[in-house]
Amino acid sequence: MRRLIIAAALTLATVNVDAATVAGVTIDDQITVNNQKLVLNGAGLRKKLMFKVYTGALYLPSRQTNPTSIITADTPRRMVMQFLMGVDKGKIAEAWTEGLVNTPNASPEVKTAFKTLSSWMEDMEEGQKIVMTYVPGIGTTVEVAGKNKGTLGGKAVADAILSTWIGAKPGPGADFKKAVLGGK
Question: In the predicted model, what is the mean pLDDT of the chain?
Fold first, then answer.
């Protein structure tokens, strides 16, 4: 299992191409994950009250606007959160837990994975990123502030994580959801 995780981490290389900009943050138009090109589906700004908290970018094999189709597809995807201000790890962990509202009747496996995900969070500073990359058959590799924290297995877990952004009640809000789904 350890070899599989190390192999997955080594193949999750990113290639920079052209860029888009959200809240002053440069976001690549495409990346490569596990030797497959992913395109920027959309990028949004997470605001809390009047504060700009982070930019979020969603990468998929091709652009799509239907959240159900995106979630049910068993294809590689990447979610990137770049923080625009310092955020306490407790607040980030709390947001993951609250995001489970988008996965009604979450299995014990999914709930346990979210506890693990929450435990991997760190206090984030401006400019730092959380990167979550799902690869079918491997799981979701989580990188926090440049550190590989591990891989959460299972598509159900990957779908629950993505649902926190594009589910019925997205934690970052409806405007954010619209933006990562390619809307303006």
Answer: 90
Q: Please, what's the b/e burial string for 12-25 (b: 16 or more CB within 10 A of its CB; e: otherwise)? A: bebeeeeeeebbeb
What is the rounded CA–CA span in Å between residue 147 and residue 12? 13
Contact yes or no for 45/22 (Cβ under 8 A)? yes
The CATH number of the domain where 85 resides is what? Answer: 3.50.70.10
Answer whether 61's CB lies under 8 Å from 133's CB.
no
The DSSP letter of residue 146 is T
* Number of domains the chain is built from: 1
pTM passes above 0.90: no
> CA-CA distance, 71 to 161, in Å (whole number)?
10
Two structure tokens written together for 2:
């350890």
Which two three-digit tokens encode residue 70? 């995106």
Which two three-digit tokens encode residue 96? 């993951």
